[in-house]
């Protein structure tokens, strides 16, 4: 995957201030690069290579070292947060749709309410000053999903029998990934040892992939259940 000779990499202290967000990753920072230089970094080893290849939206990690500096980085981070918010929003809507399939009077209101809540959460994430604040912003969406899961768990909602455990694993993996990223583990325990591989952000990406797979494993049978199930008469 990394087979080109890259430029001389920087240490944490020499990297631009807007890229000094993890003081436990000590080396491997790319110098400020043009757009083509950022693209070239797909093919040499640096401390964002693992993040690029484990991320569903690669633009943030690929171009964060762009020579445009902090303004470009801020726009890339905002784009990345929009992607996270969209995944959280669009992933939950079919869950709500299926859970309230037999409550047509409540379902539209719940879908609209969750969409509006997601807009607020997305804005709070975009304006958050830190990683932990961004995690708390998305916690509003997680709390709303837990209410939906609880309704299903106590029999107030509907859906395929095996889908709810998938959804619980989905949010558990997402939460674990967020906490690992905020805590900067394991690099906090060994600064410099995880600069290139195995650091918290890469772990979060992998857990996010697992979370999305659990969403898929739950939504597909849910939608099939809705398509073939007749709700009991009122």
Automatic annotation (TrEMBL):
Describe its membrane topology. Answer: Multi-pass membrane protein
Q: Which GO terms describe its cellular component?
A: membrane
Cross-referenced Pfam families: HlyIII
- Cellular location(s): Membrane
- Amino-acid positions noted as binding Zn(2+) in the UniProt annotation, renumbered to this chain: 61, 201, 205
Family to which the UniProt record says this protein belongs:
Belongs to the ADIPOR family.
Keyword set, alphabetical order: Membrane, Metal-binding, Receptor, Transmembrane, Transmembrane helix, Zinc
Domain of life the protein comes from: Eukaryota
Q: Which molecular function term from Gene Ontology is one that the record holds?
A: metal ion binding
Chief subcellular location:
membrane
User: What protein name is recorded for this chain?
Assistant: Progestin and adipoQ receptor family member 4
């Amino acid at each position: 995957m990394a087979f080109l000779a890259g430029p001389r990499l920087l240490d944490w202290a020499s990297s631009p201030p807007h890229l000094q967000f993890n003081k436990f990753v000590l080396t491997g920072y790319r110098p400020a690069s043009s757009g083509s230089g950022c693209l070239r970094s797909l093919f040499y080893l640096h401390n964002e290579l693992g993040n690029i290849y484990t991320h569903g939206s690669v633009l943030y990690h690929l171009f964060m070292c762009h020579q445009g500096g902090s303004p470009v980085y801020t726009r890339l981070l905002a784009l990345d947060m929009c992607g996270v918010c969209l995944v959280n929003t669009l992933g939950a809507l079919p869950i709500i749709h299926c859970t309230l399939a037999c409550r047509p009077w409540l379902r539209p209101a719940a879908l609209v309410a969750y969409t509006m809540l997601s807009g607020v959460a997305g804005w709070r994430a975009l304006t958050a000053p830190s990683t932990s604040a961004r995690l708390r912003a998305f916690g509003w969406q997680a709390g709303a999903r837990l209410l939906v899961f609880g309704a299903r768990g106590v029999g107030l909602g509907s859906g395929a029998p095996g889908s709810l455990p998938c959804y619980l694993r989905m949010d558990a993996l997402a939460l674990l990934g967020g906490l690992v990223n905020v805590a900067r583990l394991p690099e906090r325990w060994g600064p410099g040892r995880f600069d290139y591989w195995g650091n918290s952000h890469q772990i979060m990406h992998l857990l996010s992939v697992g979370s999305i797979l659990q969403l898929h494993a739950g939504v597909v049978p849910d939608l099939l259940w809705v398509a073939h199930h007749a709700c009991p008469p009122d």
